[in-house]
Amino acid sequence: MFAAKRRMVSAVSASVAALPGILAISLIWSVLHIQYDWFGASLVFGLGVLLGYVRLYSGSTTLVILLHALLNLESVLETVVVLGWM
Predict the structure, then answer these.
(1) C-beta atoms surrounding 41 within 10 Å
(2) Domain ranges of the chain
(3) Which residues does 63 contact at the CB level (< 8 Å), separation at least 6?
(4) How far apart are CA 57 and CA 27, in angstroms?
(5) Measuring CA to CA, how many Å separate 7 from each of 3, 4, 45, 59?
(6) How many Cα neighbours within 13 Å face the side chain of 49?
């Protein structure tokens, strides 16, 4: 009982401590995507925060890379459909 509570408090503490770093990196990354308007940059920021927390909780950079590749694949497929290439 107490061990589970201790792990939960530890996980919450880690996520709170990581929040400034995740937000800062996500903000820098979204600003570097200059090809997008403010809405697109805000989506990049939100996805950066999400992927940052996925990395924090899973401990796996590989998972984050695969999720990013999946997002890129979805973007390519959407572009193919919208342009009528398929």
Answers:
(1) 18
(2) 2-83
(3) 54, 55
(4) 20
(5) 6, 5, 29, 15
(6) 12
Token pair of 21, please?
A: 């770093």
Strands (E), 21-85: none
Q: Amino acid identity of 51?
A: L
Are 63 and 54 spatial neighbours (Cβ–Cβ below 8 Å)?
Answer: yes
Angle between helices 38-58 and 2-32 (to 10 degrees): 150
Provide, for the chain, the percentages of residues in helix, strand and coil under a 3-state DSSP scheme, each rounded to the nearest 5. 85, 0, 15
pTM, 2 dp: 0.77
- Buried b / exposed e over 8-21, threshold 16 CB at 10 Å, is eeeeeeeeeeeeee
Structure tokens at 47: 């996805």
pLDDT in tens, 18-73: 999 999 999 999 999 989 899 999 999 999 999 999 999 999 999 999 999 999 99
Amino acid residing at 86 = M
